[in-house]
């Protein structure tokens, strides 16, 4: 029975505790708010205000406080030290048994902390840590009871930590912050902190967590810190942007591990910096951190693999950061430096390699920019398909936002060289400028310039083999940081004057390349639009030699303008050369059976927009000899118009316009004009009308048709028919036997007699006239 009674009693007690625990949060305990506020004030050394209080039992005897504001020490300002939506406070039972309400732990939820560094005073968190020594200076400053302070354990999850200096808030803060502060005996405090660094003026960055673990203990010389600091792998550019909002567009990932020890004003720092993605290397470093003065000085203690030492100096770390990074290059490897720059984000070709050494010092200060001098010696730069670039000595000057390299002599291959200089100016109104001057260089070697980030040189990127001499300048307005993709050519442009010799130019729609013996080239930028002028051209296309000039303007109605002077040409050769332009008959079956529409119009033909003049001293078409003194050509897409033709056929004057339609399977031609003073049977004939034809080769000749009017003078048609004047209409079509003529509306004058009638070509090829004069019929052949 006793056993059953004990069991019943235990059950009753458990139920009573459960009922009390469930009911406590709803109990009217507002009378406890003031004592709990005083308990918090004694533990934190700061005035505390609470909106609402409820008791808890299951998580340990304590209270849940809503709307908790922890005010600041008067030396640190008037803004609250911290604010929490809820604060779970556990009551110290031993202190309670001694008749005092003390709190053993605080758990803050949805909290925000403001870490403040006043002028001429320590950080506010240092003031808080000093409470562990029983010196409640803050309590006296805020008229709190001067009781021995006992710092409770403090825990925060998912909070935010802001930084403030005097009355100025920093743009830097920690998000997703976890914090544990707990007494460790002897006045020492154990600290555990993690958070994600961020800036209020930037969107979320690819930043890892920042961890701090260790202790803070009082000593005769003041508070002593012993902390381990870690940074999870974080984007290198995000780390740079944390201290410089402009950023540098850097690639790679960085992490660190550091040990901090000493007083807040003189903390010894020692650790390892690990880089990944920008090369796998570790940098040891050591230095001093002054939290009060916001200064940090670090020096690398292990090489970077470049025979290089780094130095870092930072001031006003959390207010307006002023920092400087300098590197001493002690005959460092140029190849390693190029590889690192590429991996950090510099727009250098992946397959470019470099040898040589770099010596000198480079620094970067966020308030002043770059500084220093470098010397590159015995450098060899290799790019696929380009002769090696050799530089005996090159100098680089860095000052502010400007980098000046050269001009330096660059040897290309065994026999060629060029003087190359470059200037880079960062910031508004800046840019990059590269100057190249040479007496002779292979055109193929200029690919090295484009591969190094400046982009293709207009026209030269389409030339194969050959040489050039002269000067070129590349300029790019500054729009993005130097280490930002896309390559520089996206916004830059070339200018200069040079000559090319013995090179080949590929032209869309022409079966053979243009063989250029020599030409002068001028490239200019006018109102931000590129202009190209190629003059004094001496070249050959197939068997056709020519001279002339070519101009291209990005903003012109006809971007391409030209002038060609041709001594002699054969129509069959012209057809062969332009076969890719004129023939689009589809597949073999379509060509054989003449089925279907023409093949698709190529994009280059659709885009063609050119205008110019052509002259041909001797043009052979079948058995006829032509010459074209001048003609204006307008080529727009698939339509070609040759207007203002002035030339000769034999000794007769030829004028008119020619239109060519390239949309069909084969080209279609239409000429409208006139021929004057064509020699015929001892006299002269004038023709005015049109000629049409289509196709190429024999098919083109067989398709020729003409019609129009004719006039003649002093025509001895036959021994007994000499016509002083001739007028009429004509139609002509080409046959295998030769041209077939049909004449109508003829009006002829012989002596004092007038004739009218018509004429036609007979089966034997002879032209026969059937005329009527005064009722009398006359037949001439």
Quick tags:
57% strand; mainly beta; 781 residues; 40-stranded mixed sheet; 40 strands
Describe the structure.
The protein has 781 residues and is mainly beta. Among the domains are: 565-675, no CATH class; 704-780, no CATH class. 13% of the residues lie in helices and 57% in strands. The chain has 13 helices and 40 strands. The protein has a 40-stranded mixed β-sheet that branches. A hairpin with a 6-residue loop joins strand 8 (210-217) and strand 9 (224-235). The chain is elongated, with a radius of gyration of 47 Å. 26% of the residues are buried. The model is unreliable at 9-28, 132-149, 478-490 and 586-596 (pLDDT under 50).
Distance between the termini: 157 Å
In total, how many beta strands?
40
Q: Using only CA atoms, what is the Rg?
A: 47 Å
DSSP summary: helix tally: 13
Average predicted confidence as pLDDT: 78
Give a quick account of the main beta sheet: strands, pairing sense, barrel closure: 40 strands, mixed
